[in-house]
Structure formats: structure tokens, C-alpha cells
């Protein structure tokens, strides 16, 4: 493993092409354009935009991308080598690449003999010709041509001589970079070092790497590839892609830049990384993985009180890096073990307090009581904010509760229904809300909205986006206490989380619902009024 | 990297201890006992059960575990070295470890000078004494003692001589294994190889490794650690743990066994791996990651078309391994014979059937429909048994349902209450049941028992022991569909599990409740009557 030289590493993103093979992943053309801009702002060098031959939507992206301005990133069109027994000119695969009108294209070809003979059903010699012809023809049309060697690692294990011939064909044809791919995802880091170390790299065009995560090693394989001579790395944002995904650029980029000292264009822009990760998650409509390295919500979270004391003394003793370098933030989880220093930090926005302030004492006691009852504020900071407001005497309730009444019934084979009614006092008016829904929590929320909307039109800005239930003492079976978490979002994309706990799931949900509306009212609506 | 020899590798699971530090992870004592049994069946060598000193719940696990039978796995209690300036004997940390009454214990000590001086606030020399004393005292009490070297890699980078002294202190004190830990998670695979390669391993006790996933390299680091001489690897099921998690044993075990040829006890049991992964997810109430290597739902998925054609020709061309080796299955978009053999197996107790029997066809179709709606029978076999009885025309309902009606209300600051009423027909009698409870599910169950008890005294033999709720499409918030699991037990300790799915949690719970009583009636009560 070489440390003496640190060549520039090209970051090549395939979120919009290979990433689209992932389960549950689809992007509209508009999504793809927006994601391409985010990648450009992040300093990604190449953005693989799609496979123009595969369908009209893919081709449309390239037509639209032509009119877009990108500061640095180059858009790349993906396609395969010409078909056996044809010329490159006029071959539909090759022509589709040219019609994309991008400065750079990428051509995928076979590097495993069995794939050539059994899948392409052609000769090993013809496969080499297909690769040479396709790349050199595209070069003659002025394109930068990357060459993806599909199944390279498996192919090398089966027949290293042939895999090397494929690399040489790409080199001779003028490929910008030979991207060795682990298409089935079974290659391990030490094998990457062995195989890449055995290649006559000086006789070849520069190498790039493309890994899949089937053994959980896609990131490590990519780093090993770079340590073994590659100067180009492919991956996707959040690591989403076929099966277990592609190499995760959100892990590779900060590791190369901050930990290994490799120059990358994205280096100075990595403070945007967390935002880009979440933007792509939003477009993919996938809940971001809290445990994701560097950019996940839990990546810099700390639980215990002792830990927090150490953190405040010397961060490097408890954190492998500063969260802000990747645009993330440290989260001190409010938990049983949380010390006063945690609470002090949360209180700091409301004034200056010390460990001996009565408010700090009171909150510490309250937190202990609540946590003993089963409340958990780690994932429900908005509910904790309400506790703070109440303790400081700053809390303004949205309404005064009178009563709710829910009737759930089911007769014979008809589906169940719930009627929800509630009475409350909003801005000095006695109000009733009512709704009929399938389940009780849905009915309660609908009745609450029905009651509040005439007085607080901002209620319409709020949507509930997540609802989770945890049984706390399941051994009490149907009499167990349940904890409910609700996530809410406003029209501007701001999100917050609340919690409720009770033996009655309806009451637990009611607490979390009321906290959500109350939080929005106190933190957004009232503070805006005050600053106007 | 050595390939010539493949020593036996010890698998050490810390799901129940370090894994509990993960965001949103909590297990009851009963959950922990059940998970320990699953790990034992899988062939895990050591199961770290918790930190007995930290709280009563942790200590209770060890009291319960003493009476449990494990085929192979040894339970390990976790704790730290003695406090500075004390003796090991009588130190609360050390005594708590002895009181756990396990054959093996693990002691964590500091390997980074700054942590010794700034966090422990003691001298470097005293830290070495603390380590030596603690381990040798525990050894003198007949325990197998593992030694966790906290922050080893960061400590080694800062002061390799001191880190080596810590290793030697553990060796001299008689530690079974020196577990080098990357506590902050920033170490990279090539650094693991360099640092471990530089250690005088022949002069030391055997090495083990413990990695965190903060750069996405915990699995690769573990493999690199083993290639660099470690013979013990720590991790968690699904990789859940503090921040970005621990090294994922669900990736490490199949890679060691199937791809690297290292002998592990779990080797012959890895066909259970996917089931264990999902069992732990169920207990943690976390939706399993579909993209997880080896055990994820998408790990062996293929989009239809060309891929599938290639697959049917030669699987190894498109898959890095056979999914069934880890108990997972290939998923392709064309309809498949998936599940038929499982169904056949289940049916065998009711007679002889073949894959072409109409009952098998019918059950396969039904199972597909139900699973598409969100039912899951892996953890609810009693509900599946009822589907079988219904399909075969053998099902005898316990009662005929007429209607249920639940009223939940809360007024002012009084606690919420639910009145449950239901009408049904039992043994040709029209019966009403009624009850008042806090929550709706409790009220429904109590009303059902009220109605049935006069006709079926055996109802008293049944108690409900577990109730779990999972929101299936959380993005639909309070209108989401929920899945309820209920575990039941009779007076003889026999247990069974049932499932219900609906947008209305009451209705989902009702389905699982009725299945539970029906199952007991059909399988226990009626069959006993028939054999008398």
C-alpha cells in the first residue's frame, strides 16, 4: 500500500444511472436535473446521467441537460459496446451515445470469458474488436470515453490473460480511463489489492473502480482500489443502487479528503455533503438511514452523560472528526444518562443558565420522571422543547382541552369505522370537531384539525409524515404501555418529532399530536409574530 | 496478507451490550433471553449479555440466563477495570462481574494515554496496574477473561509504546484474548493492516478486533484484522450499535465461511442467518434494511428480463453466491414457485400432498395475497396454521362474530377510559361481553373473555404475553396500516404467536386476538377431545 504519492482522484457519480437500479428508486427527469445540479455544486467531476437507449425518459434527460449550466461537472451518457458482427458506426447503442451530445460517454464491455460466450454469444476475439471499435469510433467523434469493464474481477479470477487483453483493447482504443467493475459484488478488499497490484498499470490507460456492496465492502474496496493505483472512483449518493447498492460516495469522499489526503474537486465543498445526501433521499422518497456514516442523523450522536463531559473537554477523544466538516451536527441525545451539561446546552438559546439554576434542576428532575414513565426525547426533540417552554413559563397552549370521545365499531363482515368527536376552547371559543375515519388515531387527528382550522389556518401547513409505535412492556400484552412517535413537516420542508406514552394508544397518540401542533404554534407561528 | 493458514475464528456477539447503545434500540430482558437463544442456535461462540453494574435490568438478564440452557454459546458479562487507587477485590465494577456468575467476563481498559490522563485522571502507570489487577483477580476466580482495549488504534497512533504496554499488561495478567477496539470508528482498513502487522504478536495473548462503522469500513476492518492475525471478532447482528453501528456479523460470518475459508462454529448454521437477522429486527422494532448485504430483502433481487434469462442459464454469472446458503432467497419479478416446498412441509401433518395438489396452489396464492397486504407469518405461525385449517376445511370457529363497539373518552385532566362491548354467538347462544379498561385493545380482549368464559372455561388457561405493533407504511402517518403480533401462552408454558394487519389498530389487534383463541381451541382443545 503506497502512501508516498497522493494523485488527484476523479469522483464519478452514477446515482442517476446505476443508482436507478436500486429497489424503490425512481426519479423524474426534473428530479434528475436537480440532483445533477446538487452534485455539480458539491464538486463531483462526472455525473452519469442515464442510459439514453433504454427509454425515452432517459433520452429526455440529456436533451434537457444540454441547456443547463454546470460549473464544473460533466454529464456522461452510458451505453454498451456495438453488437457482434456490426460496425460501430450506425450501431444503435453507439448512435444513442452520440445523440446524447455529451462531452463524455461511458461504454460498458465484457471482461469475463463466460459472459462473452454464453451471454453475448460471440467469440472472445470479436468481443475485443467490439470494445476497440466502439471506443475508437466515439473517440474519433471527439468524445471523452470511459470504459466500464463489466465483471472484471470475476473475469480476472477465471482468466487473467483475457481480462488483461480487454484492458489493452481499451487502452489502445484511447479510453480515458479503464473502470474495473465488480458487477456481482462478491470481491473482497484484499483481493482488490492483489488483483490490481498484479496489473501492468504503466502499460495501461489510468484505472478506475466501480464496486457493489454485496459483502458490505464497497467503500473499503474503492479505497483499496485507489491505494492500488486507481485515479477514478464510481459510486452513488447514499450508496443506493442494485441489490445492496453501489459504493457510497458520501463515505468515500470525506475519507479521501479528510483522512487520506487525496486531492478531490469536492474537497472544499464537503460541508454540503449532508444536505446533498438528504436532498437525494427526499427526491427518492426514501427515509434517510440514520446510521449512515458521516451524514446520518446518528453519525455524531452521543448518549451517555459521562461521554458528554469528555466531549466538552476534548472533542477528539470521543469523535473521529468534526461533524461540521461534512455539514452534519453533533447530537447529544437526551436520555436517562444525560447530564446537566446536556440540558444546559439545550437551554442556552433561552438565556444564560448555570448548572445550579433552579430551571436546570427542575428540568433534570422532570426528564428523569418522564423517562421513567417511558418517554424518550432522543428522537422527539420538539416534545423536549415544549417541556423547556413549560418550565420557563414561556409556553402558550394552542387550545384548552375539554374532552374527546371516540367510537370504534365493526359489525359482521363490514369494515371497522371510528367516529371521533372532541370539544375544546380555542381563542375563547367553545369548539367541536368531528370526523369519521377507519382507525381511532386518524379520527382523532381529523377531528382536532376540524376544530382548530377556523381559528388557526396555519394548521394546513402541517402534515404528519411518520407514525411509529413501540410497546414498552410487552409482557403486559394488551394492557402494555405504548410509546408513540409522530414526525411532522411544514410546507417549507422543516421537520420535527414528538412523543407520547400511555397504556391507551389513543391517549399516547393524542399527546404526540398535541405536542406537534403546539410546537409549531410556539416555535414557528408565535415567534414569527413576535419578530414582525 | 496471509492466505496460507486459516485459523479458527471466534465469533463474539455484542448485540445485547454495545448494540444497545444504538439509536432507538431497546430490548426487554425477555427479548434478550430470546435473542441469546437464537445466537446460540446460530453457532455464535460468545454472547455478551450486558453491563451488570449499569442498572438492575442488565443484572436481571444474568440472573435469568443462569437457568437457561445454551448448547454452545457462553454468556459474557461486561464491565470496566477497577477504579484508580483501589484493589480489584471489593471494587464495584469487578464484583458486579463476579456476581453475574458467568463462565466468561470482558473487562474494558484504556489504551490511549490522553484518555488515561484526561478522562480517568490517573497516571499511565496506575492504568497498567488497574488492567493487570482486574484481569488477574478475575482469572484467580476462575473466569475466562477477555480484555477490550478501548481506543486502541487512536492510542497506538498517538503513542505506540504505551499501547504496546497495555497489550503486555493484559497478556501477563492472563487475558484469553486482547481485543483491539476502534472506539471512535475513524480507522481505515489499510491502517488496521499496518498497525496490527507491526505488533509483536508472538509475544502477546491472541488478538481480537472490535470495529465501529463511522467511515463505512467496520466489516472490511474486521476482515483485515483477521487477515492480520486476529482470531476473535466482535460485532452485532445487523450491525446495529452506537452512532453508525458496530461491525455487522451478518456480513462477516458468511464472508469468513463461504468466501475466505476460515473455520467458524456458525459455519454449518448460516442457513439460519436471515431468520436471525429478522428476528432481532422484530425484537428491536426496527424495519429491516432491505439493502443489507446477504440477509436483506433486496440482496438477491433481480429485475426481470435479460438478467433472469442469464440467471436461469448459469446463476454464478449474475450472483456472487447462492442466497439459500444464508437462508435468504432470490427475488425475481416473474412469479415463482417460491414457498411451495415450505407450504408442503407445513401441510404434511394433515395428509400427503404434492406440489400440484389444489390445496397447495390455493395456499400459495393466499399466502402471496396476505403477504402483499402486510401479513407476515414467519413470527406468527399460529395464524398460518389457521389459514391451513381454513383451506383444508378443518377449521372450527370458536364463535360467530356479530359486532364490537368501543368507546374511548377522556374529559379534562381525568385519565382516559375505554368501554368495550361485543356480541357473538357461542355454541348456539347469543352472548354479550363487556369490560371497562384504559386502552381499546385491553377492553376488547376483556370483553371477549367476558363473553366466552361461561362457554369455554379453558380460556382461563390462556394468557397473552407479548403485544407488538409495527407501522407498515409510516409515511401515511396516522392513516398508516399497522401490523400487530400477539404472543400467547397456556398454563403448561406452551406458546404461540398470531398476527393481524389493518389501518385500524383495533381491528388489527382483534384479528390477532381471535386467531390466538381460535388456534388454541382448534389445535389444543379439539384435538385433545378427539383423542380422548
From TrEMBL, chains A, B:
MF-aspect GO terms: (R)-citramalate synthase activity; 2-isopropylmalate synthase activity
Reactions mediated catalytically: pyruvate + acetyl-CoA + H2O = (3R)-citramalate + CoA + H(+)
EC number of this enzyme: 2.3.3.21
GO biological process: isoleucine biosynthetic process; L-leucine biosynthetic process
Database matches in Pfam families: HCS_D2, HMGL-like, LeuA_dimer
Domain Pyruvate carboxyltransferase: from-to ranges: 9-274
Domain of life, source organism: Bacteria
Keywords: Amino-acid biosynthesis, Branched-chain amino acid biosynthesis, Isoleucine biosynthesis, Transferase
Pathway: Amino-acid biosynthesis; L-isoleucine biosynthesis; 2-oxobutanoate from pyruvate: step 1/3
The family this protein is said to belong to: Belongs to the alpha-IPM synthase/homocitrate synthase family.
Name by which UniProt lists this protein: Citramalate synthase
